[in-house]
Write a structure and sequence with these properties.
Layout: H1 4-16, H2 22-34, E1 43-44, E2 49-50, E3 58-59, E4 64-65, E5 70-71, E6 76-78, E7 88-89, E8 94-95, E9 100-102, E10 106-107, E11 112-113, E12 118-119, E13 127-130, E14 135-139, H3 143-146
Helix pairs in contact: 1-2
């Protein structure tokens, strides 16, 4: 069965090869089938995981997402309406359900964004950010020792 990333990768390939119309049609097909907005122009690294098949996830078309990023359901990654620019995320990041990451900010490698957090400022690498507005409550974390599903020997 085709997964959301298969459709995204086809649309992205068509976009990069300047083939018109089809990428946008695939965007809308993803929206209809998966209830997720994952535009063809988003820059995504390898091994992106969308919780529950990306249900309710909205990602801005100019966003940049690194490698090994896990995004849970109902997450929004986009602009904030008051500043030009969108989020740029490093590698090995976990974003909890319902989080909102807004504006021209960066999320550092190895960070965790808690469920329902509203992030409007840069988050340094290896940090845990929670709350509304999000605040860093822990630094120098090891994402592999904090999250159960990221542990080296976890069985899922």
């Amino acid at each position: 069965m085709f997964k959301i990333f298969n459709y995204y990768r086809i649309a992205n390939w068509l976009y990069r090869h300047n083939i018109p119309v089809l990428p946008k049609l695939i965007d809308y097909m993803i929206r209809l089938i998966f209830s997720c907005w994952l535009p063809h122009s988003v820059k995504i690294g390898r091994n992106l995981v969308l919780g529950y098949g990306g249900l309710g996830v909205v990602i801005h078309s100019d966003a940049v997402i690194g490698h090994d990023v896990h995004i849970d359901q109902e997450v929004t990654i986009g602009g904030n309406g008051t500043q030009l620019g969108v989020p740029v995320m490093g590698n090995d990041i976990y974003i909890g359900a319902g989080a909102k990451i807004l504006g021209p900010i960066s999320i550092g490698t190895g960070s965790i964004i808690g469920a329902n957090a509203v992030v409007t400022k840069d988050i340094p690498a290896r940090s845990l950010a929670v709350g509304v507005p999000a605040k860093v409550i822990r630094e120098n974390i090891d994402i592999h020792s904090v999250l159960y599903h990221k542990k080296e020997n976890s069985v899922l």
